[in-house]
Write a structure and sequence with these properties.
With 176 residues, the protein is mainly alpha-helical. Helix content is 69%, strand content 8%. β2 and β3 form a beta hairpin. α3 (54-74) runs antiparallel to α4, α3 runs parallel beside α6 and α4 (91-113) packs antiparallel against α6. The longest helix has 34 residues, at 132-165. The chain is elongated and about 60 Å long. The mean pLDDT is 85.
């Protein structure tokens, strides 16, 4: 893994750890993770391979990312306090986030440095996955989808919570 990949993965893990302490739900809650995955997508999504079963792999890992993201968003507490919405990632949300990020990092380390390259190559041949780019795209799409669905779930829940509490509670607090 490159230094940039390590930094990006660590920053994405820290985004949720930051939310283990309750804080005000504001634009940064949404913009920081979305900005990080936009950078990741721009950096790593050169193409979307479609030969063989490449799309099957990509869709499968994207679906895993979506499931992890929605579950992570559901297990994030949102409550009103003094006219603001507060957010706190629950233990389940943090565990799901770390599992998703850790699985991607672990796979990459295993494939690059742990002797897994031959196993991945054999699996790829046996299942008609045609290129390394298919694996890269699948894992990047898993990460992007996990972040986007988590953020979207939190946003939708915050809108519902704000409407149920009081119209005076802002959905996106721009003061923090």
């Amino acid at each position: 893994m490159t230094t940039t990949e390590w930094i990006t993965d660590i920053v994405l893990v820290l985004v949720v750890f930051r939310q283990l302490r309750e804080g005000r739900l504001d634009r940064k809650t949404f913009l920081i993770p979305l900005g990080i995955v936009a950078f990741v997508a721009y950096s790593y999504l050169d193409s979307v391979p479609t030969a063989g079963n490449d799309l099957v792999l990509i869709v499968a890992l994207t679906a895993v990312g979506a499931a992890l993201g929605v579950a992570g968003g559901v297990y994030t507490r949102i409550r009103a306090l003094d006219g603001h919405l507060m957010i706190k990632a629950g233990a389940v949300s943090a565990i799901l986030w770390v599992l998703g990020m850790g699985a991607r990092m672990g796979f990459q380390i295993w494939a690059e440095h742990g002797g897994g390259a031959d196993d991945v190559a054999r699996f790829s041949v046996a299942h008609h996955i045609t290129s390394d780019q298919a694996w890269v795209t699948a894992f990047v799409m898993m990460a992007v989808t996990e972040v986007v669905t988590r953020v979207a779930t939190i946003y939708l829940r915050s809108r519902a919570r704000a409407g149920a509490v009081s119209p005076a509670v802002p959905v996106l607090d721009g003061t923090a």
